[in-house]
Every structure is written in structure tokens, then in C-alpha cells.
Amino acid sequence: MAKAKLMDFDKALELYEPVLGFEVHVELNTETKMFSAAPNNFGAAPNTNLTPVCLGLPGSLPVVNEQAVRYSISLGLALGCSIAESSRFARKNYFYPDMAKNYQISQYDEPIAYEGEVEIELASGRVIHVPIERAHMEEDAGKLTHMGGSTGRIQGAEYSMVDYNRAGVPLVEIVTKPIVGTNEDAPEVGRQYVSIIRDMVIDLGISDAKMERGNLRCDANISLRPRGQEKLGTRTETKNVNSLRSVERAVRYEIQRQAYILSNGGSITQETRHWHEDTGETSAGRPKSDADDYRYFPEPDLLPVQPTAQLIEELRAQLPEAPTLRYRRLKGEWGFTDLEFQDIQNSGLLTEVSATVAAGASPQAARKWWTGEIARVANVQGVEATSLVSAENVAALAALVDAGTLTDKLARQVLEGVIAGEGTPQQVVDARGLAVVSDDGALIIAIDEALAAQPDVLEKIRDGKVQAAGAVIGAVMKAMRGQADAARVRELVLERAQA
Amino acid sequence: MPETSSSPEITPEVVRHLSELAKIQLGEDEITLLTADLGQIVSNIAKVSEVATPDIPATSHPIPLQNVFRPDVVGDNVLTAEQALSGAPEQFEGRFVVSAILGEEQ
Amino acid sequence: MTQTDLTRLSAADLSAKLASGEVSSVETTAAHLERIAEVDSEVHAFLHINARAHEVAASIDARRAAGEELGPLAGVPLAIKDVLVTTDMPSTSGSKILEGWMSPYDATVVARSRAAGLVPLGKTNMDEFAMGSSTEHSAYGPTHNPWDLTRIPGGSGGGSAAAVAAFETPLALGSDTGGSIRQPAHVTGTVGVKPTYGAVSRYGAIALASSLDQVGPCSRSVLDAGLLQDVIAGHDHHDSTSLPDAWPSMAAAAREGATGQVLKGLRVGVVKQLQGEGFQTGVTQRFTESLALLEAQGAEIVEIDAPHFEYAVAAYYLILPAEASSNLAKFDSVRFGLRVTPEGGGTVDHVMAATREAGFGPEVKRRIILGTYALSAGYYDAYYGSAQKVRTLIQRDFASAFSRVDVLASPSAPTTAFRLGEKLEDPMAMYLNDVTTIPANLAGIPGISVPNGLAPEDGLPVGIQFMAPAREDARLYRVGAALEALVEDQWGGPLWAQAPELRAGKGVN
Known about the structure:
The complex is a heterotrimer. Chain A is of the alpha+beta class. Chain A is built from 16 helices and 15 strands. Chain A has a nine-stranded mixed sheet. Chain A has a three-stranded antiparallel sheet with strand order 5-4-15, with no helix packed on it. In chain A, a hairpin with a 4-residue loop joins strand 13 and strand 14. Chain B is mostly helical. Chain B has a domain at 1-53: Orthogonal Bundle (Histone, subunit A), CATH 1.10.20. Chain C has one domain (3-306, 400-498): Alpha-Beta Complex (Amidase signature (AS) enzymes), CATH 3.90.1300.10. Chain C has an eleven-stranded mixed sheet with strand order 1-3-2-4-6-5-10-11-9-7-8, sandwiched between helices. In chain C, strand 7 (267-271), helix 10 and strand 8 (300-304) form a beta-alpha-beta unit. The longest helix of chain C is centred in the C-terminal third of the chain and has 22 residues, at 381-402. Chain C is globular. The interface between B and C is large, with 63 and 81 residues.
């Protein structure tokens, strides 16, 4: 595949205005599937989470999961949408082996939620209102594994295998209206929008929202129009943009790619494009064609969903604070700089930091631990930071540092023990004997030994060359195997040198 | 739902396109036969539009019901993997096997 | 009592004899299996015989002997239309694409029948995926009408109706999307009921058109049909369109109707659009006679105008193919059923298209292509959308009619059984055969077909259809049983007593 030519980003924005649109699919964490009473859990053995309905067996019929409807309404409300008095399901007909019935039950002309708005705030403090067109309920497809040929790729595979466990998992698809006026902020808007949706569904408790597992999936629609033109340009739909960073990169890439084509007299093909995480590029997929005749029609096996005003108000009353409002509030309460707060948001650890502060840690300590050492270990191990340690243990760790029981260095060792499953920070401290030696007596003995061993240094200190104390401090810390407070050692060294 | 347009003649090209949408491979003689049959049938049934004026609501379900839900509880009809795969024309290691897929993931 | 006699008994009579211990289920089952062995090579009502029927019957006998309280139909044989999935017998829906397919679950109506102690004898023949009015579209060869083996037994449930008419079973399950229970009943001199949409669960009924399909009973008497509907009806949480209503006993309604009291003051509407041109003389004659009988018993006959009925067939042949084209998409060679790989392999697309080409018969392809057309971009409003509006208009016609009358009556079908092959090459003529039965499916209301004589010109059975408002199935059983009593009084016995003896065949094929 020839590398696409790109225009400089700033130059592209001089000539064109980007118009964005996002389709975000959220997998709901219900106990059972959208239309069948099969278990909805990740990681089960292939083809074990199935009823006749998930497999589309002859004679099987769908029945709507009430919890999925409630979750969808809650999400609709959180998106600022109106909830339809009556919504219904439709069949989207197309053949694909991961779709057991060869139609997807979705919502078409009557979605459950419509016309909303999500407020996001950029690092610069700029506020953008993302207009939401609709949020609708549908079912997920099964999973294909491509075998033979070049490994794991659809192209050149000799055959494919299907696991239908994911088939029928409840999804809410959130569709924005065209987002205009973002200009050079376009990539950040994309990232921040998806990040807000993720925080929203986590706060609502309706999705595990793990992008790496596909709980949250984003398709990004991007088009450019020449500055001053009213009419929208031809858009591309970039699929599988499944990390926050990728959203940002994909938007930037498409703007640069399209700008190059347009400025050279070319035109954009309306098509789906695939995002490649490894190369940071998109590649052409299927052009829109006759094959996209999905022959939607109302699902005859299902009835309209008509939530009562009482139910809607009940769910509205339970809504958590909107993410952007919460960010604003927390930033103020915690006294963070823009950069510090952004650091937390970018790492996706706001929930953890909040919980750690709630458990008694200072905001700065909570931020420092989560975005620092814990994130580092998570990165090394290739796992989620949240899976490593609980907010309570982080708070306990911070408390031990505050009390002077641990130095930062010791605390990192304790964290290592906690992550290794050795217990709470206090238990690790006890078991490994890692506490700071705060007994001046023991320190003085070590200091006197060190001074005696380095008489030249002692001379220098006595001569007022205080910086020479470093060598002795180092020797003492070494002798104490690091379990001493260096500042206290320094104080004592200066004291003993004069003695 | 999709917009209206007047019903065109059923041509072999139309039937061929429909067979692609419906994923049925048809021979030339079948297409010829179906083109004739469909033309006759469509001319007989197109009259529904005579009385289907904009003021008439559509009926999707013969008996109106709404809000038919089930509780979010695992049901009594969960299949074992063996049952799920019992009808599979081809399977391997607990999965259904299909020929190579040409084209893109949906 | 001889075994032949056992096959002539109604389910209600068998029930009494089984309960009293006069006969056993094993004897009853054996008698019917023997009858099947004798005549089914000629009739071809069955696609599969239950190898475990004897065993099931023996277990019912054992439970009864142990003093267990059993339902009224415990031990009575039952034939099951192949559209209903069963765990112990293949379920093909009359199609090659499902040849030999074993379902891992039972249809709700099958599970309920088993729980009630009915003994499944086998699976009955049908037009492929219930598309047809003659069973000639079965991938496994047509069923023959026991009254005249050269004629069709109706369809799509010709197998169930013929099995009942040929005394191979007293009871059968059918499904009715546009008349597939009532029209076969009409041409075979049997009783068939399409319940209110949602009265009987569709879970496990291989879908043809989801908003039209309804499972119902086939039998030789109205009471027997009522006994079976009492077993299979009622709410099912596996079917969203299943009605949560509590139903009165249909058997009780039939017994009440047989007294004849229900006819006094009953207002019977006769739909102008469901008679006259296109109706065979003998069919019209028997219909008129039946109306006179009802009138003589105190019923009031009211002419009803249902102006939109003339659009019913057109609407039906848009809605049905549209829904069917989607329902039948699952037959793709991936999870179950036939797989045909083109020469030299091919992609999954090629395999699916080749499988569907080889696995579906011509009528199924015709309707899938038609339905695909009706739903495709640009035509939806003109076709499917308009058809759904016609549905509203037909419901309004019924609402207006039922504000004036208690039941509607019509001939169950325009003609008696036509000859096998006669309409096979003319799909539109075949479709028009359903003109009388389709309106009830479009509106979701119940309908019953009761034998009301033989057409003088060909000596073949004719039925009368009654229709009632939605949820008023019991009314149909009362009126149906009342008319049944009146005509049987005239004939001095049931119509089936006039059926010709079938010559013994070479055994079941």
C-alpha cells in the first residue's frame, strides 16, 4: 500500500474547515444479552454464552432485556437527549457470518433517545458543545478469527472461525450531528468527546468501557470544506478507532490526508476507512454502494418501547453529575493546574484519583501515585492501572509517606509488594520490614562509623564545606539499606561532625 | 423508512441485483423465469398504493402491545457448546468454520 | 374394539376411553402407527415417524396406572407440522436446506403437548417454509388428499390436515400465516382453527412471516380442536408477541356450542367481498345452506361491506415475502443446515449463495426475491409501507363489521381441492386461493373452518369459515360446534364418515 501524501496540519486548516462526526458504540454490562437470556460476560469459552436466540436457530424469538432499556434511557438522559415516548426496533438486513440471523436488530427511524448535547472542555479552557443526534439500542455481532494466510488478517485468510458469544450483547450507539467550528482543536475534540462518553458510562455504571476490549468503539466521520463554503464536503468514516489517543491521531491524519487530495484538485471518495494503530494511518475500505441497501423494516417480533414519564424521571433523578461539570468542580476543589488535571484525564484515571482522595489521600499525592508509578508499572506489565491496586491501598500508602513511616523510595517498594498481592501497604511494610529507621540512636552509630572511616570528609565539614557531607550521607543510607530519611541523616551528620 | 418512487418494470437486471442482496445464486434461466413471475405478481399487488394515503397509519403488529420485557436474569434455555455446534456443517475447537471472507468487516 | 375403530375415534372419545382404562395409549398409538403404515405411502402426510412413540405411550400408561392425575389428552396421538421444532425428530419445514436438522430445543407448543401427555406420532409434510396452498412446494414431494389422491390436500399444512382426514391421527398441530390451517381443513373435510395472533406461542415455530404466523389445532371435530388449543395456548415469555391474557376453555366453549343455544339472536355477518365471482358453485351452495340452517336456529344474517378486503391479497403478498426474506436469511450454511461449496471452493459469500440456490425451492426463491424487492431502497413506501397501511384499513373494516355482528362467515376457500399440478405454474392463481383466509391473518383475529358438506359437482369437501374479534376464540368454538351439530344431524354423522376408503399401500415410505 502506497503511503498517502499528507498536507501540513496548520496549512490544511488555513485552507479547509474540518467537520467531525462520531458514532460511539457502548457495550452495556447487563447480566444477559439484549434480546436473549444468555449470559453477557467477557472471556467465556467459545460458543458457551448462547441460547437458541443468539444463534438465530430456526424458531427462536427475541425478547427485550428490561435492564438494557433502563441503561439506554439513563445514557440518553446523560447525553441531554429527549427520550422518545415511543421507540421501536427495526431489522437491518445484510449477510455476514458473524451476524447469526443475517440481520441486526437495531433502531432506525424511532430511536429511544434523540437531540442532545454533550459539553466538553479542552485543555485550553475552550468549551465545545457537541450536538447529539440520537442514541439507539442494538445488538453486537459475534467474533471472527481469520486463519491461514497472513496471520489474523482478513485478506489472504484461508478460512475463518466464528464465536457467537458476543452476538447479542447489548449496545447503545451514540451518533453526533456534524460538529463544526473545531478548527485546530479538531483532534483534541475527538479525543475529549470519546473520553467524556467513556467517563459518562463508567459513572452511570452501565458499561465496563474498556476500549481495548471493545466495550467502547468509535467510528470517526471526517470531512473538509473550503473556508467560507456552507456545503459539507464528502466524508470518510474511519472505523476501529479504539483508543483515546487513536481518535486524536486518526482525526489529525484524515484532515491532513484529505487536505492534500483536495488541494491537488482531487476529490474524496465516500468510503469506510480502517485505522491502523501501528502505522498511524488509515486505509481505504469498502466504498458506499448498492450493497448498503439494508432494507430496514420494523422488527415484527418485538413491540414498541414506551417508557412512562415516571420511569424517565426516576432515572433522571439518579443521574450522576455530568463529567465536564465534575471535572470543573474537582479541578477547583483539588487546586490543580490545567496541566496537572489534564494529566489525570489523559491517563483515564480520574475515577481512581477521585476514589483515592475520597479514601483520605491528598489530591496531589493521589495524582502523583496514579499518573506516576502505578501508570508506569501498568504500562510495563501491559495491563490496566485500575487492575493493579485499589484506591484504598493507594490512600493508605500515601498516609504512610505523610506520617514519615516511608520515604518515596520505600513507598515504591511497598507498592510493588501490594501489586504482587502481599497485602495492604501496612502488611507489606511489616512483612518486608521496610519502615524508615526513625531511631536517632541507630542512625548516630552509623554516622559516627562513617565519619570515622572518612576523616578527610569530617575535616571539610568542620571547615564549613557542608556539601562534602553528601559522601557520608550516602554511606549512611547504604548502611541503612535505604530505610532512613535522608533529610534527618543530613541533620544528624552536621550535628555529629561538630560534636 | 426509504423514500417512495414509482415501481419500475421488473427487468432481469433488477432480479439479478435482488438475488445478490438476497444472497441466492441464480442461473440465467431462473432469472428469466423469475423476471416474468415477478412482473406478473408485482402488477397484481402494486394496487396497495391506491388506498394507502398519507393519513392512514401503518400497522406492524396485528394486536397492539408495548413494553414487553424480560428481567435481566440468565434463562433456562442456555445451550451447551456441544448443543450450539450440533448443527454446524463444519467446526473446529468449539467454533463454527466458514470459508474465507472476501471484503471488509462490517 | 378393533384397531381400525380406534383410529376413527375423536380425541374426546379416546380421552374418555383412556381415562376409564378401556383402552391404553400403547394400543391407541399402535393403531395409528399401523394406519400410517397402511395408507401413508399413498397420502404422504408424514415426513418422519417418531421411533419413540410406543415408548412415550407406554410411559403415559404407566403414569396413569400409578394413579397420576393426567390431562384430558394424555395418551392421545398427535401429529406435528414440520414447521415446529422438536428435539427428538428432525425439523425441516419442508425444505432441503434443513434436511435432517435436529433442533436442540422444543417449540413451546411441542413442549406443552408433551407435558400434557400427548404422544407425538411424527412430523407432517408442508409446503417449503409454509409457502404454498397445496403442499406441492414441499421439497419432499406433495401430500395427497385422502378424499381424492389426485388432488391437493391444501397448504401449507396439507400434511397435518391429510393425516387427520386419513385417520392417521386424531389431532395435529398446524400453523396458519394466510390460511395454512383453515384452507387444508376446508379441502380435507376437517376442522382447523387459527387462534387470535398471540394466543399461542410462536417460539419454536420456524418463522415464515412473523406478524402473520399463528400456531393452531387440526382435528376432525370442533371439540377436539378446542381440547388441543387448551393445551397449547397461553402466555409464553419466550415470545414477545404472546398475549398475557387468561383464556377460557375452548373445549368448554365447544361443548356449550354443541347444545345449539348459542345461535339464538347471534348476529352473523356475511362479507360481500368474500363471495360471488370466483367461488365454485358447490362451495357457494353449501355456504348458503349453512346460513339458512343458522338462521332457522334464530341467528340473524347481516350483509357486511368490507371495502378494503379486495386489497388484502395484495397487501399479504407484500408483507409476507418481505418478512420472509428477512426471516429466511439465517439459512446461510454457517450454523446449521445444508452447506454447498461451489466447485473449486470460493469465499463465504459464494458458499452462502450456492447453498441458498441449492437448498431453496422455486417458490421460496420467488418470495424471497419479491420480499427483497418490496423492502429495497426506493420501493419501501410504495410496497411494504402501503401494505402496512392496507392492514390498518382491513382492521378498520373488521372493527366496523364487529360493531354490527358477533361473527363473520364466509366459505373457507373459493373452490374445492384442485388437482395436483393444476396451479403450480401460475403463482398468482395459487395466491388468489387464499382470498378468504388472508384478512384474518392481516388483522390478527381468530378464524375457524368447519366442514359443511360436499360440493355436488365434484363430491369434494367444503368448509365454512367463521371469524370473531381478537381474543374471542371461544365464540368461534361455540358457533363452530353449533353448526357442526346441525350439519351432522342432517347427515346422520360426521362428514368424514362419507370419505372413500383408502386402499392399503405398501407401507410407510
